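Input.
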Amino acid sequence: MAHKTLDVSWSDATVQRVELDYDDATIHLVESSGSSVVVRCVGFVSFEVPALWDEMILASAATSDSSPRIDKALAEVAERNGGSPPRPSGSPARNQLTWWLLDLNFIDGTTWHCVAHDVEVRRPNG
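Output.
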């Protein structure tokens, strides 16, 4: 099992906005230092957000290229889209058929999960 190191100061970062489009799940954060960070889940196939109530402050985050959540997402895709591997997508990233799980762990115990081809970080002001 591999893990990807992302250049984000996760502890006490705040989620400002989440954008989902055909190919990407994009999470806009502000670190406790005030720096803005954009985390882009490229070619996502699953984005799970359980119930939430108030502040969206992160405690930590983790990545993995092997997880039951990846297996579950791919099984659901295969069931609805022509078997395993599924027929080609309009998304070049998804068609690579390699996957990462990003877990965002919040201070209230909530965890968001995103399964995507890749996870990238950019700093808009730096």
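DSSP finds one helix and eight strands in the chain.
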